[in-house]
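FW: tagging you since you asked about this chain on Friday. Here's the raw sequence from the shared folder, copied in full. Didn't touch anything.
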Amino acid sequence: MTRKTPTLSDSVYDYLVAHGTPPDDIQRGLIDATTPLGDDAQMQIAPDQGAFMTVLARLIGATHAIEIGTFTGYSALCTARGLPDDGRLVCCDVSAEWPSIGRPFWERAGVAHKIDLRVGPALQTLAALPQERVFDMAFIDADKENNANYVEALVKLIRPGGVILVDNVLAGGRAADPDDGSERAVIARAFNAGVAADERFDCVMLPIADGLTLLRLRG
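HL: got it, structure written out here
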C-alpha cells in the first residue's frame, strides 16, 4: 500500500490503516494495478487518506464533488463512494490513459455512473464549467505550482461551507525546513503561507499522508 506519512513507523502506520476503514478488495485491486507503474505509482493517494475523503464527503452531505488530478482513480473511487447514488464527481486530468486503469474498479464498486472524467488542462476545464457555486467538495492533487490558481478557480464553483482539500502540502517534510531551497519546498511554503492567511477560508493542515490542507469556504 502507498505509505506517505514520514513520521510514523511501518508498524504504527499499518495499525492506523487497519483500525480505520481499511481498503477493501476493490481498492486493493486498484493499488495492485497501479504498482507496476514504478515510481509513478507514488502519485496514488494513501489508503488512510482515501478513507478520510470518503468519510468527509459523507459528513458534509456532499452531492457534487470535483477533483484535479485523477491519476489511476483511487481518490475518485474513494470520493465517489462518499456521494449518494445520484451524486456527481467531475474528474480533471491531462491523461486518459492513467484513469483508464481505474475505470474497471469504479465499475466493480458501482460508482462509475457518478464519475465524469474530463481530459485536458484543469484550468481550462474549470473555466468551461458553469460558474455557479454548486460543488460541495474539491480535491487538488496535480501540478503543485498551480495550486493557488486551482484554488482561485474553485472558489467560484464551491458553495459557502464547502471544502477544498489540497494534497502534498508538506512536500515530503521539506516545507517545514526554512533552509530547504528546493523548488518543491519553496512552492509548498508559498502556497501554505498564502492559504493560511486567506480570510476567505477556515484552514487546517492535517498530518495525513504527505500533508493534507483542508480549506472551508466561509459564507
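FW: The radius of gyration is 16 Å.
HL: agreed, and The mean pLDDT is 95.
FW: great, closing this out.
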